[in-house]
Every structure is written in structure tokens, then in C-alpha cells.
Amino acid sequence: MDGVLVDSNPMHCRAWEVFNRRYGLETTEAMRQSMYGKRNDEIVREFFGRELTPQEVLARGAAKEKLYREMIAEKIEEMLVPGIRQFLERHRDDPMAVASNAEPENLDFLLDRAGLRSYFRAVVDGHQVRRPKPHPEVYLRAAGLLGVEPANCVVFEDSYSGVEAARAAGARVIGVLTTHGDLPGVALTIDNFGDGELAQWVCVQKPIV
Questions:
Q1: CA 160 to CA 98: how far, in whole Å?
Q2: Positions of CATH 3.40.50.1000 in the chain
């Protein structure tokens, strides 16, 4: 979802900056870079320390995400990655899933507010798996729910940990360059879903997808 359906990482960074200041913590560039592709519990522990109780981790993560949703409520349409609606519509009849480390409230918020839910036959969030990306569990679960072998899946990813997870699952990976300028190990990189190379690549791959 983040960085693929919606170019949300700049707003996630902004929300973390505002939230962290509530605890007197200034968000560094290294902290911003470290959060991409990770589940909230990992980020909270990295930012605030491993000594937090599970309840404290959950509460802080939930509070930050509530702030994030408030900040983007009127901006979702402009945050969508260019061409995503048209791409999803073209492939409406193909089995598609969202597989994300994101909080379930964020997934529901985006899919419902943006009107994208009907395109996806399965939605897997970070709380439906025991091991988040870069472990492949989230993608293996999504493929299973779709009834498709992972080797016949194409994953769109914007983060290093996501690419690692998708490749470990056995899927082919297309890198979306919203977050990083390079994504080693992918079959193709695109700036957005209006990229002409994407349409050509999908056309070639279609018989085995």
C-alpha cells in the first residue's frame, strides 16, 4: 500500500516528526530512512527503546497512526500514485491483493476513502502475520488467499525490505521508485503506473500470470 497505491511516506515522516516531539524526540534523517517498509511495532521500539511494554508500543503506534489519518484525510486523492486507478481498472478481472505491513486501520481508511477496495480480492495487513517484511509471510498469505502460486505473482514494491520479502516468497517484483532511487533485484522499475514500460512488460508476462 504505502509507496505503491499511495505516495504516503512523506506524510508518514511528517506525522512521526509531530508525534515524536510530544515525547521530546527530534526525528533525524537516519530515523526517517529506517522506518520504510517496517511494521509499526518495530518502528516504535527503534524510536523509543526496547524497554517499552507491548501495551505501550501498541498505544504509541496507534496514536501516531491516528494523527497520520487526520493529516491525510483531505489529501488522499492527490497522494495516489499517478496512474494507479487506470491500472487497477485495466486489471480488474485479474486476481489482485494488497499485502502490507501497515496497520489495519490505515488499510481500511485508504481503501475505503479512495474507493479502491473493490479491486482487491484479498487484503492482508501487518497484524495478520506473525513475521513482518522482510519475511515473506505476508506475500505467501496473500498468494494463498488468491489461490495463486507465488511464482505466478507479480509484486509491486517501493522498499528494500518489501523487495526482499517478495523475492523470498518466490514472486517477481516490480520496483516503484516513490521511496528509493534504486531497488536492486527487481525485474523492472517504474516511476508510476503510467510508465509505458510497465504495460509492455505486463503484456509479455500475461500468459503465465
A1: 17
A2: 80-208
State the residue for C-alpha cell 523470498: 168
Q: Taking phi first (over 0 means left), then psi (-120 to 50 degrees means alpha), and beta for anything else, what does residue 131 get?
A: beta
Classify domain 9-72 by CATH architecture.
Orthogonal Bundle (1.10)
- Tens digits of residue pLDDT in 16-36: 999 999 999 999 999 998 888
**CATH of the domain spanning 80-208:** 3.40.50.1000
Q: What average pLDDT score do residues 169-180 get?
A: 96
pTM for the predicted model, two decimal places: 0.87
